[in-house]
Design goal:
By secondary structure, the chain is of the alpha/beta class. It contains twelve helices and eight strands. 53% of the residues lie in helices and 14% in strands.
Length: 270
């Protein structure tokens, strides 16, 4: 549904670059992509690396795109939106990846009836393995949601949800990579403690997490069932699992997601 459409992107940071990579991997021609980025060195890098257009002014990217991706930091969101408000903004689909910025805030800064879809991706978009959630604004159509899902499925996987659930998404998959990195680091440290060289311990830990996640996604089996298949009676795994249960591992992870989701709600009110 994005074939033949021009896509303008406001902001040229890491997530914008990830979106460009996904679009190109999805066979969107480079000539159909234009990024607005204020830093000249960054513009030059993006243009040279990906063969796309790169300009300084936001309005140029908006005028170019039938789809306009808002990829600036939330702190400068109003400045960016004010630069886009005009007749050229009418009839376009605006896709926002600005964390914590609600669709109604974006809609209020654009011409009446603006079609806005909000997306919460995560940093794995940089390697096209993102987990993203898509939430339509008041004026977005089913086709707008389908287009947005099409774009973000190129970066990994994407799900459509009600916007009120995006704080939970932020706490789970938005902040989730940091929890996983902490787990990998802890596994690596434990390997070193038990005599493994650091590089091998880290490689084993990362591949173990990657393989376990891949197995669950490929088989579709419940994680509890897969865990049971690893856990032999009287074996090593159940001894380790007992310690995790005693130390409230699952409860701690759930509390971490709760805290991050609560902070996301707070940021949305600031």
């Amino acid at each position: 549904m994005i074939t033949g459409k021009n896509i303008g992107c406001i902001g040229g940071g890491n997530m914008a670059e990830a979106i460009v990579r996904g679009l190109l991997a999805g066979k969107v021609p480079s000539g159909n992509i234009l990024i607005a980025e204020p830093v000249s060195k960054r513009r030059e890098f993006l243009a040279a690396r990906y063969g796309i257009g790169a300009v300084e002014e936001n309005r140029e990217a908006m005028a170019f795109g039938e789809i306009v991706i808002l990829a600036v930091k939330p702190q400068v969101c109003m400045e960016a939106l004010n630069s886009l408000n005009g007749t050229e903004a009418q009839g376009k689909l605006f896709i926002s990846i600005m964390a914590g910025v609600k669709t109604k805030t974006i809609e209020s800064a654009l011409p009446r009836g603006a079609r806005v879809v909000r997306v919460m991706p995560n940093t794995a978009a940089l390697v096209l393995k993102a987990a993203s959630a898509v939430a339509p604004g008041a004026n977005a159509t089913a086709d707008d949601v389908a287009v947005t899902l099409g774009i973000f499925n190129l970066l990994g996987t994407a799900h459509s949800l009600n916007e009120k659930l995006l704080d939970a998404v932020t706490g789970l998959s938005g902040s989730g990579p940091a929890y996983v990195y902490t787990l990998i680091e802890a596994l690596s440290d434990a390997g070193v403690k038990n005599g493994l060289p650091r590089d091998i311990a880290t490689s084993l830990a990362a591949q173990t997490v990657f393989g376990a996640a891949g197995m669950m996604l490929e088989t579709g089996e419940h994680p509890a069932l897969l865990r049971e298949k690893v856990t032999s009676p009287g074996g090593t795994t159940i001894a380790g699992l007992q310690v995790l249960e005693e130390r409230s591992f699952r409860g701690t992870v759930m509390s971490a997601v709760d805290a991050a989701a609560a902070r996301s709600m707070e940021l949305g009110k600031e």
